Predict the 3D structure of the following.
Amino acid sequence: MILAENHHLLLNGNSNISDIYSQNSDEYYMYSAIETAKLSRLYDEVPIGSIIVCNSTGNIISSAHNQTITRQQTCSHAEILAITKACDYFKNYRLPNCSIYSTLEPCAMCAGAIIHARLSRLIFGAWDYKTGMCGSILNLFENKTNHHTTIKSGVLEQECKELLQSFFKQKRINKKLNKIK
Ligand SMILES: [Zn+2]
């Protein structure tokens, strides 16, 4: 309930993000990931967003939205793009002092990249029951593959889920309209 009211405030421009979520909280950063995800819709991409935060400074190092269609690249998931940018920033292929926030439970490819990057924390919003690799299908983080990343799920889950649901709902409507034409 509180979250819904908060978002109502945000949507109406009566408040801003730092008034609602305490700065540096997981909700604060997830909100940024959601804002990033919304950029996907401009390009008719599935709205998924990811950001990387430096644990020491709390600064957002990189952000990216899903761009597979725009780039015509299988690997251009939000997480991969955000990791690539953060590696460029630190000039390091490992990011042990960083956390990654994603609006959706990562797939196998992104979970693999998160493990290889040795990110210290993964925080995600909505579960992906079709391809999620943090427990939905498999959990790549729970066994010998990884000793580095801790996971927190369900942060602003409803908001992350609604973003995806409204996108696919609109897609279905557009499809029907095109058939009528
Ligand atoms: Zn992925």
Observations:
- Strands lie at 49-54, 60-65, 98-104, 121-126, 150-152.
